[in-house]
Write a structure and sequence with these properties.
InterPro entries: CTDL_fold, Sulfatase_Mod_Factor_Kinase, SUMF_dom, SUMF_sf. This is Formylglycine-generating enzyme family protein. By secondary structure, this protein is of the alpha+beta class. Helix content is 10%, strand content 16%.
Length: 296
């Protein structure tokens, strides 16, 4: 783990997506952050030690899916599948599919394997899975502010973890989508082994790109500010401690940070520290993983 010094984060961005606004200051206490994303090898040790069964492996309760065909209510997860040609980028169903039997050990479905991917980040991780692993490891998940602060690596106001150019000198600095999304990928075409790209200023790898990472914050469609209500000792609005930050959703949604290997400038320019995405707590996908933090 790397020790992240205390400081004041200029959180968010006014340049890109509405939910990253407004830019505001947030104090961050010193804490420790894992240098790498949790890998398949790491998670395998956890499962072997505890017998833990991930959310993607569990039977589904028909009561949670009224009207659904019972034949479809089987364990599985969402798997990215590239299209053959151009598609409507407003319809994510063109490239995401529900795959029966997909879970962390068989990430593309039955018959797939992680045997050659033990140093890749574990995927198909729901929020509960990440929290359970962190507790077993004697750690915790980071807050959204901690993740963004650590991802910036000491750079203030830069668009990316390394500066303002997404590809300085034409060289990718993170595992993101290269080419036309979602049918032409000139990059890796999936996750990369952790540490395959340069570290940021704090010595952390893959804080942007590779896989989205869970944080503890509940999602809200814009950043909540002190003027929105009481704040905690770390300056975080207390509303972010409850699901009431975003009413109207059956499943609470948490903030994912960092972007993934699917982030593309022509669709989702989110391999940036300020980027954020909502994710239902009970849903893991083939581009969602995590890393742990620890109090300073």
């Amino acid at each position: 783990m790397a020790l992240i010094p205390e400081g004041v984060l200029r959180m968010g961005s006014d340049e890109f997506y509405p939910d990253e606004r407004p830019v505001h200051e947030r104090p961050v206490a010193a804490f420790w952050m894992e240098t790498y994303e949790v890998t398949n090898a790491d998670f395998a040790v956890f499962v072997a030690d505890t017998g833990y069964v991930t959310v993607a492996e569990r039977e589904l309760d028909p009561a949670d899916f009224p009207g659904a065909d019972p034949v479809d209510l089987v364990p599985g997860a969402m798997v990215f599948t590239p299209t053959v040609d151009r598609v409507d980028l407003d319809d994510w169903r063109q490239w995401w599919r529900w795959q029966r039997g997909a879970y962390w050990r068989e990430p593309s479905g039955p018959g797939s394997s992680i045997d050659e991917r033990m140093r890749h980040p574990v995927v198909h991780i729901a929020f509960e899975d990440a929290v359970s692993y962190a507790a077993w490891a004697g750690k915790r998940l980071p807050t959204e502010a901690e993740h963004e602060y650590a991802a910036r690596g000491g750079l203030v106001g830069a668009r990316f973890a390394w500066g303002d150019d997404p590809y300085p000198g034409g060289i990718p600095q993170a595992n993101s989508w290269l080419g036309r999304f979602p049918y032409e990928n000139l990059g890796r075409g999936g996750t990369a082994p952790v540490g395959a790209y340069p570290p940021n200023g704090y010595g952390l790898y893959d804080m942007t790109g590779n896989v989205w990472e869970w944080t503890t914050d509940y999602y809200s469609p814009r950043h909540l500010l002190p003027s929105d209500g009481p704040v905690d000792a770390g300056g975080r609005p207390m509303l972010l401690a409850t699901a009431s930050a975003e009413p109207g959703f059956a499943q609470p949604r948490r903030v994912l940070k960092g972007g993934s290997h699917l982030c593309s400038p022509d669709y989702c320019l989110r391999f940036r520290p300020a980027a954020r995405s909502p994710q239902a707590e009970d849903t893991g996908m083939s581009h969602i993983g995590f890393r742990c933090a620890h109090d300073g």
